[in-house]
């Protein structure tokens, strides 16, 4: 089959949006017979009926629904491609960033504020494990990545954003008090996908003689939605360990206390991008928003 005619495909998409042939023809400054001819030629090229005409208009066939979905995807892809070539305007076009789930919760309100001020901006935020973030930046899927360790790769640049503490969070009644390991075991741990590695870092540093690995912890609950991890802690039924960004983003953080351990565990956040001589103003602005988010963690 030859490549689909773009004009016919555009006419079909406008027809679906307008709802009838007359309005679609007016939008495209065409006659109604001309519009009908475009649809007929597209159907002939595909060898399938796309619309079923009736006295009150038309409905799409299954082939019509699939064609419409494909056409819309094509226009989105073309629009995003053209936006990617227009790097002069910092407040217009698409940007993408990937980071941990906790940092994403802290960052997203700032991205929303940017989009509110700049209607031409489309911001994509992905929460992902570090390996996926690095591979996504290398593939060009993400403009910026935020990771805990600077990757050593010849195609990447890395900028140190600053420290992010790992916080052991407790019910508010523990404010100002340091728990013992047995007290933590009695309370129970809210496990999550990164819980074991965070427990190794925090509990291993502060309870070396008692902590025997995450598999020995008394687990009270498991949740993989990072925004929900602090809730059972706030309600007094468990403790957990999260990066500071996840604690700050929790709406009920005033109902939490943070254990004042003598041996704090710190992540070192890095901003990574592909190596280029220059970055577009739009990506530079995104990087600035990420830097401001990271600065909140040091306060």
From TrEMBL:
SUPFAM superfamilies in the record: Periplasmic binding protein-like II, Winged helix' DNA-binding domain
Q: Which PROSITE patterns match?
A: HTH_LYSR (PS50931)
Family per UniProt?
Belongs to the LysR transcriptional regulatory family.
Protein name as it appears in the record: LysR family transcriptional regulator
Gene3D superfamilies in alphabetical order: Periplasmic binding protein-like II, Winged helix-like DNA-binding domain superfamily/Winged helix DNA-binding domain
Q: Would the keyword Transcription turn up in this protein's UniProt record?
A: yes
All residue ranges annotated as the HTH lysR-type domain in the record: 4-61
Q: Name one GO molecular function term.
A: transcription cis-regulatory region binding
Which organism is this protein's natural source? Answer: Qipengyuania flava
Q: From which residue to which does the signal peptide run?
A: none
What keyword terms does UniProt attach to this protein? DNA-binding, Transcription, Transcription regulation
Pfam families, sorted: HTH_1, LysR_substrate
């Amino acid at each position: 089959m030859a490549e689909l005619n773009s004009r016919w495909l555009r006419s079909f998409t406008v027809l679906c949006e307008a709802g009838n042939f007359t309005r679609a023809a007016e939008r495209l400054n065409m006659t109604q017979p001309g519009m009908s001819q475009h649809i007929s030629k597209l159907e002939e090229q595909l060898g399938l009926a796309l619309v079923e005409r009736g006295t009150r208009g038309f409905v799409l066939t299954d082939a019509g629904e699939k064609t419409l979905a494909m056409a819309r995807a094509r226009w989105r892809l073309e629009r995003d491609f053209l936006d990617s070539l227009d790097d002069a305007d910092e407040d217009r076009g698409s940007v993408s960033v990937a980071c941990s789930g906790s940092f994403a919760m802290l960052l997203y309100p700032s991205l929303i504020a940017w989009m509110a001020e700049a209607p031409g901006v489309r911001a994509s935020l992905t929460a992902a494990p570090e390996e996926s973030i690095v591979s996504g930046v290398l593939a060009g899927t993400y403009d910026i990545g935020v990771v805990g360790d600077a990757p050593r790769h010849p195609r990447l640049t890395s900028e140190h954003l600053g420290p992010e503490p790992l916080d052991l969070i407790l019910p508010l009644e523990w404010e100002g008090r340091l728990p013992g390991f047995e007290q933590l075991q009695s309370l129970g741990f809210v496990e999550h996908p990164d819980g074991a590695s965070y427990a190794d870092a925090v509990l291993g540093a502060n309870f070396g003689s008692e902590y025997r690995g995450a598999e020995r912890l008394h687990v009270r609950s498991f949740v993989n939605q990072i925004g929900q991890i602090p809730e059972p802690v706030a309600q007094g039924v468990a403790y957990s360990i999260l990066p500071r960004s996840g604690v700050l983003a929790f709406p009920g953080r005033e109902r939490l206390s943070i254990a004042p351990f003598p041996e704090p565990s710190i992540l070192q956040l890095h901003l990574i991008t592909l190596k280029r001589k220059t970055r577009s103003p739009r990506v530079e602005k995104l990087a600035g928003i990420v830097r401001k988010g990271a600065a909140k963690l040091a306060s």
